[in-house]
Amino acid sequence: MLDHIGLSVTDYAKSKTFYDAVMPTIGAACCMVVTAEETGGTYEGAGYGLQGKPSFWIGTGGHTRGSMHVAFVAESRAAVDAFYAAAMAAGATDNGPPGIRAHYHPNYYGAFVLDPDGHNVEAVCHKPA
Fold first, then answer.
1. What does the pLDDT look like over 26-84, one tens digit per residue?
2. Contact in structure between 36 and 85 (CB atoms under 8 Å)
3. Higher confidence at residue 129 or residue 111?
4. DSSP states of the chain as a string?
5. Are 44 and 60 in contact (CB under 8 A)?
6. Domain annotation for the chain: domains and CATH numbers
7. Phi/psi of residue 91, each to 5°?
8. Cβ-based neighbour number of residue 4 at 10 Å
9. How buried is 114 (Cβ within 10 angstroms: 0-12 exposed, 13-18 middle, 19+ buried)?
10. Where does the VOC domain start and stop, copy by copy (predicted)?
11. What is the model's pTM?
């Protein structure tokens, strides 16, 4: 249903470093960067995605009002674990370590962290162990 989503961040360089470290754990990468020169203003952004298609963007513009929740699909529970470990090493705040969340469904294996702007970012695998 969604083509892409974007979050404004308070410190673009810090957030880009964070997401550059975390996204490869779920098979995603920074596949597009736009500069202020290209956008005709002050906006800079980085798009992350699979197979060269950016679906998740971060960019300048200050903090998004309120916090957002973004959940990324992980192909395995090991990828969820790697996502959590990379996020914590990159300065995230724990918001729920890897584990089963049976109240969603029996195979819901997720991990939650707060990114540099306090957004609740999750990796989730829906497959059985």
1. 999 999 999 999 999 889 999 999 999 999 999 998 877 878 999 999 999 999 999 99
2. no
3. 111
4. --S-EEEE-S-HHHHHHHHHHHGGGGT-EEEEEE-HHHHTSS--EEEEEETTEEEEEEESSSPPSS--EEEEE-SSHHHHHHHHHHHHHTTPEESS-SEE-TTT-TT-EEEEEE-TT--EEEEEE-S--
5. yes
6. 5-125 (3.10.180.10)
7. 100, 10
8. 12
9. middle
10. 1-126
11. 0.93
User: Which has more confidence, 103 or 129?
Assistant: 103
Angle between helices 77-89 and 12-22 (to 10 degrees): 150
- Amino acid identity of residue 117, one-letter, is D
Total residue count of the chain as it appears in this document: 129
For residue 20, give the amino acid letter.
D
Of residues 88, 47, 113, 68, the one with CA closest to residue 124: 113
